[in-house]
Amino acid sequence: MDILQFSQVQKSFGSRQVLKDITFSVPEHSIFGFIGPNGAGKTTSMKILLGLLKPDAGKITVCGKTVTFGQNETNQYIGYLPDVPEFYDFMTPREYLMFCGEITGMPVKEAKERAEELLIMVGLDQEKRRIKGFSRGMKQRLGIAQALFNRPRLLICDEPTSALDPIGRKEILDILVQAKKETTVIFSTHILSDVERICDKIAFLHQGEIVLQGDLAEILSAKTSGNVEIEFQKKEETKRFTEAFPGWKENTAFKVYYERKSEEERVAMLEFMAKEKIYPVRFEQLEPDLEDVFMEVAGK
């Protein structure tokens, strides 16, 4: 079942068209990477999804119901984590989640159980300090707990790891993988390595258009970067090889790296080494990553 569907969504600001016939769907209990550089239209898409912006054309459905500008009926199915979540700093994380339960009308016993469950999930169950003293990563973890509090069918994460250090990013990504067990995650980001780690399906947004979408594993397996890295035993072998095959991207005493070599060129390299009796320590055709794929489909 598809939790979310975008169908030919368009949006312009004045003469500038920001979204051009955006169409994609998100299956239940998946992590969907909505990817693109800053300014590609990701946040505009999320605002339309939440009913905060009116599209010029097209349709969005959440759990089978149509999103309508200015109304929030479909938002009952949605949890939202912004890139910079805000809280009442004088509260502890447990007090804040109980407050969320109170304003949504959740019974006190249920709210206590849900708060404890989520605090354990995000690693804040032993935290007694007030939110004012929290790091950026701790606030993001509490933000996920708040967004999941009412058990939404769809969790939207808008650039949740963009300002975190590597440890903080890993913590957030691990929590999102756990969250997939009870919800569906839209992971909007420009950090492609994060997408590779946790996403099942993706859509690339470039200059307001979806230029590639589908199953992440299938997309990567269908592409070949043609990038080659060779490690030699001797400096002299590196010199002989690079003289025969110029156009290297990186070159050190024992290693040489080439970008986007065809199969014929790679075969020629191996034949040259066999003929010259050069026995490399390593000859590796590097697997493509999302950056390689995006650069290809974006025409760069």
State the strand order across the main sheet.
Answer: 6-7-8-3-9-10
CATH superfamily of the largest domain: P-loop containing nucleotide triphosphate hydrolases
The dominant shape is: globular
Structure classification: alpha/beta
**Separation of the first and last Cα atoms:** 35 Å
Q: Under the CATH scheme, which architecture of the largest domain would be assigned? A: 3-Layer(aba) Sandwich
Under CATH at level 1, the class of the largest domain stands as: Alpha Beta
Q: Can you count the beta strands?
A: 14
User: What string, H for helix and E for strand, traces the elements in order?
Assistant: EEEHEEEHHHEHEHEEHEHEEHEH
Which spans of ≥5 residues are poorly predicted at pLDDT below 50? none
What is the CATH fold-level name of the largest domain?
A: Rossmann fold
DSSP helix count? Answer: 10
Helix content bin: 25-40%
Q: What gyration radius follows from the Cα positions, in whole Å?
A: 24 Å
